[in-house]
């Protein structure tokens, strides 16, 4: 179980790092802003599904070894689910309103998007701590 949980946490950490610092910036570099935005809007639900599923699976596996990192992984899974189901629709709505000319929506979009970035970084720090515990 411990080897499988390490593999699952490593997969999650690597996937989140690649998406955050490789894939998303590359999309904005390679595509025009409007196309990149539409593309990432379609990709983000899958990203959060990956985060939620992989963190939940990792938490389940690690619960048989040590409950403390398993609890941390459960937090990552639940915050990933909350980001997908609660935060992402609000971000999309604010962006749509911003593009439609609502001046107040631009500030709301920036605040919500910034919150999602901070949440993602906190999740990565938590995953890094779990991986450090394996060392």
Automatic annotation (TrEMBL):
Identify the GO cellular component terms for this protein: membrane
Subcellular compartments: Membrane
Query: Which superkingdom does the taxonomy of this entry point to?
Result: Bacteria
Task: Report TM segments.
Answer: 6-31, 43-64, 109-134
Enumerate the Pfam families for this protein. DUF4149
**Would the keyword rRNA-binding be found if you checked this record's keyword annotation?**
no
- Domain called TMEM205-like: residue spans: 7-97
Q: Which UniProt keywords apply?
A: Membrane, Transmembrane, Transmembrane helix
Among InterPro entries, the record links this protein to: TMEM205-like
Q: What is this protein called?
A: Uncharacterized protein DUF4149
- What is this organism's lineage? Bacteria, Pseudomonadati, Pseudomonadota, Alphaproteobacteria, Hyphomicrobiales
